[in-house]
Amino acid sequence: xxxxxxxxxxxxxxxxxxxxxxxxxxxxxxxxxxxxxxxxxxxxxxxxxxxxxxxxxxxxxxxxxxxxxxxxxxxxxxxxxxxxxxxxxxxxxxxxxxxxxxxxxxxxxxxxxxxxxxxxxxxxxxxxxxxxxxxxxxxxxxxxxxxxxxxxxxxxxxxxxxxxxxxxxxxxxxxxxxxxxxxxxxxxxxxxxxxxxxxxx
Length: 201
Prior knowledge:
Elements: E1 4-12, E2 16-21, E3 24-29, H1 32-36, E4 44-53, E5 58-63, H2 66-76, H3 83-92, H4 95-103, H5 107-111, H6 118-134, H7 137-140, H8 151-162, H9 167-179, H10 187-198
Parallel strand pairs: 3-5
Antiparallel strand pairs: 1-2, 1-4, 2-3, 4-5
C-alpha cells in the first residue's frame, strides 16, 4: 500500500490534486477539507494516502492527516459505503464532528450530506456508535483537533508518530508547545522540542 506521498503540488481541483512525485504526476482524490490544507501550487506537500485496488482501476486517496484516513477506513468498513461515498461524507463533515453526530444519533445531520440517505445514515450510526463510545480516541484515530488545526501541529504529530510515539502522547506534547507559544519555526525544531517533552510524559 502507498502509505504516504511527498511531492510538489501541480494543481488542485474540487475533488482531487495532482502531485508530482519522482517525475510522475499522481492524481490524488481528497476531501474538500483535505484540499484546503494543501499549499499553493508549486508548494511541497506531504499527505497520508490509501491505494484502492480493483480489477479495472487503481484509485489513490489522500488525507490531511491520519485521523481523516482512519475515519475513511471506518466508513468504508460499512456495507454499502465505498471509497467515493466515504470521501463525499468527509467533504461534508469533518472527522471530529462526524464522531459527535454519530454518538448523538443525529440522522438529520448525516443525511444533509449528498449521497447519504436515511438508511445509510442509520447504518453509519449503528455500526460506528459503539466504536466511538467504547474505544479510546487513540485506538480509533479520532481526535478533536479543532483547537490545534494548524499545519505545523499536524505535521509535528505525524512526524512523532512515525518515530514510534503514540498519537495521544504526540498530541499532548504539541499542545504543551502550543500553550507555551513554542509551536513555531521549522518543523525539525518543533520536533526536537516535542521530543524533550515526551521524555517526561
